[in-house]
């Protein structure tokens, strides 16, 4: 008997240049290997020419819109006129609520991909949205969480009664870059939004502390990539201190990671942290806040340093500067091997294929 094609309509709630868009792109690369699957991705238009989401640049069927009637027409075409078996993949809470309720109303299959915990606010609007989100999650055919931290956060907070749950961590391709070979200094890379939630006030404190210690300022450098409300403060530090380098937004991962030695992540309650696994692919040693999804990453990536405050970062800097070349190479090798075991593109592909076959 001839099998019907499965038609996947993927809807992504925003496109702010973050890791979710890369996760979706890599997932579509995996879907392409299935003969009996057709798929289309609806995602907002990027603010710049983006190889991961611009419909004119990606090698997949992308539409840079999440307008309701644009998606509705595609759904009707596939489900009614072409009589395909359709499932919606819903990424991020805004589209999960809208299209999840739609699927419930019209008895359609859908999976919700949860990339982050709920917002840390509890006004009337947020309470109402959580009620709707709970309904959508409990009725979903599948829920996929990006980390165990996000799963536990959502399940414990909302008491989700749905056993069709999987955790599929983000995967990362190996970055085309080489780390610094120096063992007697540190070249930190910091990547992401320059906002309080990303721990940038702690970064500012760390830089100001190091500026007062000549034994550090001559051996420790900070390479900062990103934009956000605290960018002006970082620009001031860049102008004041020769060991602080600020570049703004940089889309090219080869530029970001090349010649660096360690990755510093100060975010609080981060869902996952794709830049950690990107850096780990070439042996950049992670230095992570003991918070959120970083905790499970630190357990999986051997050689990771963890901290809870700025003072502990200074202790870690002392430890790193005390390493010899052989010790640093050993740590780098452990980081790379752990990445290959837990977070490589091959592992992501294996996990996602298992999930697709379970639909």
What can you see in these coordinates?
It is a single chain. The chain is of the alpha/beta class. It has helices spanning 19-31, 68-81, 93-105, 124-139, 148-158, 200-211, 214-217, 231-240, 253-257, 274-280, 294-300, 310-321, 325-342, 345-357; strands at 6-12, 37-42, 62-63, 85-91, 109-114, 142-145, 165-167, 186-191, 220-225, 244-248, 262-265, 285-289, 305-307. The longest helix is centred in the C-terminal third of the chain and has 18 residues, at 325-342. It starts with 5 loop residues before the first strand and ends with a helix.
Strand content: 15-25%
Low-confidence stretches: none
* Total number of beta strands: 13
Helix content range of the residues, please? Answer: 40-55%
Overall geometry:
elongated
Structural class: alpha/beta
Listing every helix as H and every strand as E from the N terminus to the C terminus, the arrangement reads EHEEHEHEHEHEEHHEHEHEHEHEHHH
Largest sheet properties: 7 strands, parallel
Spatially, the strands of the biggest sheet line up as 3-2-1-4-5-6-7
What is the terminal separation in angstroms? 19 Å
Over all CA atoms, what is the radius of gyration? 22 Å
Tally of contiguous helical segments: 14
What's the rounded overall pLDDT mean? 94
How would you briefly describe this protein structure?
By secondary structure, this protein is an alpha/beta fold.
């Amino acid at each position: 008997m001839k099998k019907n094609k499965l038609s996947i309509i993927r809807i992504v709630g925003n496109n702010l240049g973050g890791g979710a868009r890369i996760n979706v792109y890599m997932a579509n690369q995996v879907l392409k290997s299935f003969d009996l699957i057709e798929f289309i991705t609806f995602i907002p238009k990027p603010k710049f020419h983006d190889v991961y989401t611009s419909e004119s640049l990606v090698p997949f069927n992308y539409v840079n819109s999440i307008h309701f009637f644009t998606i509705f027409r595609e759904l009707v075409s596939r489900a009614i006129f072409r009589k395909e078996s359709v499932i919606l993949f819903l990424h991020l809470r805004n589209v999960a609520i809208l299209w999840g309720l739609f699927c419930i109303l019209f008895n359609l299959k859908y999976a919700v991909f949860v990339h982050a915990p709920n917002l840390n606010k509890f006004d009337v609007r947020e309470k109402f949205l959580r009620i709707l989100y709970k309904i959508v999650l409990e009725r979903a055919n599948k829920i996929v969480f990006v980390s165990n931290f996000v799963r536990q956060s959502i399940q414990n907070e909302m008491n989700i009664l749905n056993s069709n749950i999987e955790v599929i961590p983000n995967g990362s391709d190996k970055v085309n870059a080489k780390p610094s070979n120096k063992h007697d200094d540190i070249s930190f890379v910091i990547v992401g939004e320059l906002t309080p939630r990303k721990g940038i006030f702690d970064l500012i404190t760390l830089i100001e502390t190091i500026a007062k210690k000549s034994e550090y300022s001559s051996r420790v450098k900070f390479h900062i990539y990103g934009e956000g409300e605290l960018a002006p403060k970082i620009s001031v530090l860049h102008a004041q201190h020769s060991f602080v380098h600020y570049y703004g937004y940089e889309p090219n991962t080869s530029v970001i990671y090349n010649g660096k030695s360690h990755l510093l992540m100060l975010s609080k309650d981060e869902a996952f942290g794709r830049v950690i696994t990107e850096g780990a692919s070439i042996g950049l040693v992670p230095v992570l806040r003991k918070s959120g999804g970083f905790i499970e990453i630190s357990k999986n990536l051997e050689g990771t340093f963890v901290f809870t405050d700025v003072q502990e970062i200074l202790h870690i800097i002392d430890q790193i500067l005390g390493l010899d070349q052989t010790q640093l190479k050993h740590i780098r090798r452990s980081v790379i091997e752990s990445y290959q075991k837990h977070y490589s593109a091959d592992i992501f592909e294996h996990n996602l294929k298992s999930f697709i076959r379970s639909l």
